[in-house]
Each structure stands twice: as C-alpha cells, then as structure tokens.
Amino acid sequence: MSTGTSRRGFLQSAGGLATWSALGGGLLPGLAQAASVGVRRNVGNMTAADPVLLTYRQAIKAMKALPASDPRSWSYQAAIHGTMTTPVKTAWNTCEHSSTFFWSWHRMYLYWFERICRHLAGDCGDPCWRLPYWDWASPTQRHLPAPFRDTASELYESNRFTGMNAGTDHLQAGIVDLSGCWPMPDFYGASGAFSGPHGGVHVSIGGYMGMVPTAAQDPIFYLHHANVDRQWNLWLAQGSRSDPLSDSTWKTQQFTFFDEHGVEIHMNSCQVIRAAEQLDYYYEGEPEQVPQYCERHRFPWTWELATLKEFPLALRLDARTRNADLPLADVRARLKAFKQSDEQLLLLELDDIVADRPSDIVWEVHLGATGKAELADGSPSFLGIVALFGEGLRDMKHGDHEFKPARFVFPIRGELLKRVMKAPERMRLTLVPRGVGGEGEKAVPRTEAKTELGRARLSIQTRRPAPAEQ
Ligand code: C2O
User: Fold this and answer.
1) Rg, C-alpha atoms of the chain
2) Which of 123, 239, 241, 280 could form a disulfide with 129 if both were Cys (CB 3.0 to 4.6 A apart)?
C-alpha cells in the first residue's frame, strides 16, 4: 500500500546524510543545532501566561510579519501543508494523508516549524522552546484549550465553529476514542487508524482546521499534530510494534522543508524515527521511546491482510441513520474457527467512501446493533468513526496528490467479536450521523455533502515470519 512515487536517488543506507553534509556537517540537524533535548509539554497543564504559549504567540506574530514569499512566513508554512493559492511555490501542498508517510511527514513538518518559531521568537534558552501538544483524547481536555479561545491572542482563529471558540462545544468522546487504534499491529494499519480520530478533531474544530488546504493556518493545528505525533511513540511503546523498516520507499523518499534561515532542506523518514535522539524532543509523560533503526531492521514478522468477505454497499451517508445488512452465512465456518491472538486480528474495513465536498457530519460506525435502542459511542456495537478530512473529498484536489477514496479500518474485539464469531445469518452495519461539537446525541449536523460508502469488508490480519533479508 505504498504511495511513494518519486525516489530521488539518495543513498538508502546513508539515510540522506548527503543532504546534511551540504549544510556543512554530517550531523543530523538537531544535534548540530541544539545542545539539549527538550520536552514538548501538555498544553492542558498550562495557563495563558505560560512562557511556552507566550513564545508561541511571539513566533506567530513574527511569522505573520514576514513577507509571504519568505518560506518561514506564517502563510508559506501553512501552504507547505496545503493551500488553494496559485501559482504553487516550492514544497507547497506536500502534506501526506492516507499514505504511509502520514506520521513521518507531519513529524518533519512540525520539527522545522518548531525551529522556525524558536528562531523568530528569539528563544533559545536551555533547553530551547518546543511546541506544546493538545491531548484531546483525555476526558479533561475535550474543549479547545482556553488560551486559544482568547480573541485578543495570536492563538485565536475566528473562523472555527462558534461553540468551539466559545468553549460551549467540545470534542465528542466517540470522535477521540483511540481504543480501535492501539490494537492495530502493523504500522500502516495503525497510522491509518489514528488518522481517523485525527480527522475527526479537524472536522470538529471547523473553519481553517476543517479542510486540508487551509488547516495549518490555525495555530491549534500544530498542537493537534504534536499529539498525533505523540501517538506514534505511544503506539510503538506498546511493544511488538515496528516502523516499516523493510519498505525502501518509506525509508528513502525525500520531502522538502525550510529551516529557520529559510534554507531548503530535504529529509526522509529514517531521519525522524527516533524523536529524542535525532530531533531532540520527547513528550511530557511519555514512556521511554522505542528506538527504531533503518540500518538494522530485524523485525521478525510482517502482517498480512486477507479479505474474508467483501460486501458491496453503495450506501448513502447523510444526516439520517443508515443501515446495511451484511450476510455472513457463507463465512460461518471461518468466523467460528477464528481465534483472536497476538497473531490474528479480525477487522472491519469501510472502503471507497467518497463525498463531493466537506461537511460537518461524522458517522459513528456500529456493528450488530439490534432493535431500536439509541446508539452511542459507549454502545457495545460501537467500532469507531468515519470523519472525512484527508481523503475521500472530491473537490479537495491537493497538489499533485491523486484523488483517493477514504478507507477506515476497525478491529473487532471483545464482546462484539464473540457475537460476530457466532456467525449469525447476517449482521447489521449502522452509521449514525453526528453533528460535530457539543454533546454527541444532541448535536445537529449543520451542512450536508453527498457522501457514499462503497463497500465493507471483513478481513483477517495475520502475522507471518518476515522474509529473510537479501
Ligand atoms: Cu495534514 Cu491533520 O493534517
């Protein structure tokens, strides 16, 4: 499922050191520039007067004061992520979604953005300034952090949903539920799974944040993504997890950024897999980072995804609850024989989801719901959410990225798995629309797009011994 297209001929084993040497040294950038490892702190523990936020405000002001042609300016940096402005300048529209580079590209992006902020705010104490993160999955941090709601602050953005900015709305529990993400055993599956709630947060905040081509213009974007970046470390820290170290495209594809002096930088995923060691930061409260090494990959297994059954649906998704019955009779034997273990996981995939434009609806996905009971994110049938942000939106043509339908994957576990394994004749798939912000059930969708869910699949992911190295 690699989407890498252009390999630009850098030495694989050197991991792009050639690029660094052009900058005047063989050291990786952080090591060359910053003396000490710094901590990216939880914004939930900060007041508006926290020096970290004051420095961030100063940096935003300084970036906004630069001419738009300066690659360090606020608008240029945001355009690297995405923009609708033409003509397109170097590195614009290069963010990676629904690709194997989702985590690593955004990590690089944040890293250089952080260095630019630090430099322009004139901050380099010991340790130098680091971005904070917004731990939105924490039940106590579902509101947009208060310092970002102060209309007099550089952290404010007026086009977010009114309720979010007023502090009356908050992220719904189901949208930021990561319980379906942690169990994903392979890197591609996991980064895809985390990108679901990630998109839900974007859509819930609205305004610039709601769409890829504008998202990075909102100062909360970078704290949101620091948290997404933190999940990468936390996912690895569960053990038995690995970056895709035998994927040479993943390891060598170069991406373009700018450093704090406006100098163009090229970087690949191998240069960002050990945050503390290569990039000089760790997250407040995180367990010890699991070091991954591109040069010494000896991960003993790979994961294989096999379709058990595909269900063509062509189901319209809108502001009404929609159902589809998934017939299971012919896979009964295989479902009954299924054994969940460290080596096998049963997944529900929802694929070929296409909308004509963004909307502010997200859908809760339920499997095996019966009767008329109110469904909620706490229901036993709840699997996760579908929120369209980085993919599946027809009118959001983005740089050279080709249009891709959206795909969401949910592990089926626990009680729900037991019910699926009983293999009834059919099981009901239910998509419950939620307006974003506010209290789940009561929220009303405000706008509607034409959205269709193409197909569902029941699949089994299985661990296999890794092929021997050549
Ligand atoms: Cu590249 Cu959260 O967006």
Assistant:
1) 22
2) 123
The encoded tokens of residue 158 equal: 């007026």
Three-class SS of residue 323? strand
At 67, the amino acid letter reads P
CA 289 to ligand 1 center in whole angstroms: 23
Supply the DSSP symbol for 141: G
- Asked whether the predicted pLDDT for residue 185 surpasses 60, the reply is yes
Q: How far is the CA of 390 from the centre of ligand 1 (A)?
A: 7
Residue nearest to atom 3 of ligand 1 (CA): 212
Q: Whose CA is nearest to atom 1 of ligand 1?
A: 95
User: What per-residue confidence (pLDDT) applies to 289?
Assistant: 96
pTM of the prediction? 0.90
For residue 355, list its beta bridge partners: 393, 451
Q: Cβ neighbours of residue 18 under 8 Å, at least 6 residues apart? A: 10, 11
Taking each helix axis as running N to C, give the angle between helix 102-120 and helix 220-237, from 0 to 180 degrees, rounded to the nearest 10.
130
Q: Does the CB atom of residue 143 touch ligand 1 within 6 A? A: no
Instruction: Answer whether 266's CB lies under 8 Å from 255's CB.
Output: yes
Task: Report the chain's terminal Cα–Cα distance, integer Å.
Answer: 22
Cβ-based neighbour number of residue 92 at 10 Å: 21
3-class SS shares of the chain: helix, strand, coil, % to 5: 30, 20, 50
